[in-house]
Amino acid sequence: MKHSHPAFEAIKPNIGSSFTTLKFLGNENIKSHVWHYHPEVELIFVCGGSGKRQIGSNISYFSDGDLVLIGSNLPHCGLTNENTNNEYEMVIQFKPDFLGEYIWETPEMQRISALLEKSKAGIVFGENLKKTVGKKITDMHESSLLGKLIIFLEILEELATTQDYRILNAGKYYLQTQVEDNERINHIFNYVKDHFKEQITLEEIADLANMKVPSFCRYFKKITNKTFTQFVNEYRITHSLKLLAEQPLSITEVCFESGFNNFSYFNKTFKEYIKKSPSQYRKEFNYFME
């Protein structure tokens, strides 16, 4: 599906509640091709399965489920599709001021307030937290209205106090850039998404952005905090992780299927990003899954 900029998504809270909780069985919530944003903060728990997450300018791969916090107006694609093989997906959406503006100024809420600020760059949480918080999110969904809110505050507190997390976008990839910036950068993102298996030259991508190559390179670095080559390589490496984990392809086939046309360059780039060779990654992944 082609689209030049992220769509605004309007979200209504559940009736009688100040925030929304949704449960999707399997891959009911197919939005992995939809690039969208909304003022609501979104906490997503994917139970089991593996796939690609594209949040801001970060593209990464998850296996055995996922727990991510996506801040207000941060553009992202959905996490699940027909290939994810997840059991279910829980989505919690809430406005940053869903409990009123001043509550975040109270001493009790300082840490959660800092968490919401950090979430503007996207946060992915570690393995143990994924399991414990995932269970709480599922319990919360089944609770009464007040029970829901109490469990939700406990979840936010747990996320705010853990060290077991990673920020997804090193640069400040907020949607609060100019509207024309968003249209332009998302046009570029979507072009990469559709063409990463082919060779993409700087000339054609600069042309797509209506810019000369040097000013395009500066512009892209300023917005995403990475060079265009780094961005494309990340996209390709993420795709290769998925193939290594899920497909019975040889490593050479994975290299070419991921858009690399040179095997030694693929190996070198893979090691740079993943800190191990493709064969080592596959071996460890299979061992972990067994």
Describe the protein's architecture and organization:
By secondary structure, the chain is of the alpha+beta class. The protein has two domains: 7-167, Sandwich (Jelly Rolls), CATH 2.60.120; 179-289, Arc Repressor Mutant, subunit A (Orthogonal Bundle). It is 44% helix and 16% strand. The strands form three sheets. Strands 2-8-4-7-9-10 form a six-stranded antiparallel sheet, covered by helices on one side. It has a two-stranded parallel ribbon with strand order 1-3. Strands 5-6 form a two-stranded antiparallel sheet. Strand 5 (51-55) and strand 6 (58-62) form a beta hairpin. Helix 1 (110-118) crosses helix 3, helix 2 packs antiparallel against helix 3 and helix 5 (202-208) packs across helix 6. It is globular and about 55 Å long.
Largest sheet: 6 strands, antiparallel
How are strands sequenced across the largest beta sheet?
Answer: 2-8-4-7-9-10
Mean pLDDT: 85
Low-confidence stretches: none
Q: Considering the protein shown, what is the CATH homologous superfamily of the largest domain?
A: Regulatory protein AraC
Shape: globular
CATH topology type of the largest domain: Jelly Rolls
Supply Rg: 20 Å
Main structural class: alpha+beta
Number of helices: 10
| The first-level CATH class name of the largest domain | Mainly Beta
Protein name: AraC-type DNA-binding protein
Keywords: DNA-binding, Transcription, Transcription regulation
Pfam families: HTH_18
Organism: Chryseobacterium taeanense
